[in-house]
Specification:
Elements (H helix, E strand, L loop, with lengths): L1 H8 L11 H11 L6 H39 L9 H10 L1 E6 L24 E4 L4 E9 L6 H4 L8 H10 L13 E10 H9 L16
Antiparallel strand pairs: 1-4, 2-3, 3-4
Helix pairs in contact: 3-4, 3-7
Length: 219
């Protein structure tokens, strides 16, 4: 008789299941107390920087391909600032990061952000370091590794037509960002990241890597 009562009490249709159990499990994992060592924070800085800059570079490449096909260099030139894309800015907010692209041969010197670490070359040095108790620094070179980029940054008369170069000079009279070849460094990504954002990124078991097939809205 006792067994019969127990069986009836445990009928599946009478069990109240916890709603959103998967989401709650994810949140629980993320809120677990974890000990974070200094080297862990440096690794998280590298992962966070790689994630943000890879996102920006992928969106830039896909956006420029689309805009060049629609309206050529005249149209694409307005989209060549991936750090201002909404998706990139949103990710920077999550990571508590400020992202800049720097170059010794800028297209528009007036809008060029100052180096976040002036002692470092923006062209050749990949660096992850801790600037202070609360601030981390990330830098990696920007290399011209896509044939598409030569249409605006290659050699004038060879990769860039005279008509397109006239458009570039009209928009950016002080332009110095031409004459590059494939495989050549053009500058660097530099990020300043807050410790709180780096620590949260490290402890997030559910963090997701950037996937190219996902195309978020840019603006």
């Amino acid at each position: 008789m006792v067994l019969l009562v127990a069986a009836v009490a445990c009928r599946p249709d009478q069990v109240e299941h916890l709603k959103d159990s998967k989401r709650i499990g994810i949140e629980t994992a993320n809120w677990e107390v974890k000990r974070i060592m200094p080297n862990d924070l440096l690794r998280a800085t590298r992962w966070a920087g790689d994630s943000l800059t890879a996102t920006a570079d992928t969106l830039l490449r896909r956006t420029l391909a689309r805009e060049l096909a629609v309206g050529g260099v005249a149209r694409a030139a307005a989209f060549c600032r991936p750090e201002t894309y909404r998706a990139v800015d949103s990710l920077a907010g999550v990571l508590k990061a400020v992202a800049h692209r720097v170059s010794e041969r800028p297209r528009n010197p007036a809008s060029l952000a100052p180096l976040l670490a002036e002692e470092m070359s923006p062209d050749t040095v990949r660096t992850i370091k801790r600037l202070s108790q609360e601030v981390f620094f990330y830098q990696r070179p920007i290399v011209l590794n896509n044939q598409l980029c030569l249409r605006c940054h290659g050699e004038v008369g060879k990769d860039i037509s005279a008509a397109d170069y006239a458009i570039i000079k009209q928009k950016f009279p002080q332009d110095r960002a031409t004459g590059y070849q494939l495989g050549q460094p053009m500058g660097a990504w530099q990020l300043s990241l807050q410790r709180s954002g780096v620590a949260e990124f490290w402890t997030m078991k559910t963090r997701k890597k950037w996937k190219e097939h996902k195309m978020p809205k840019l603006f």
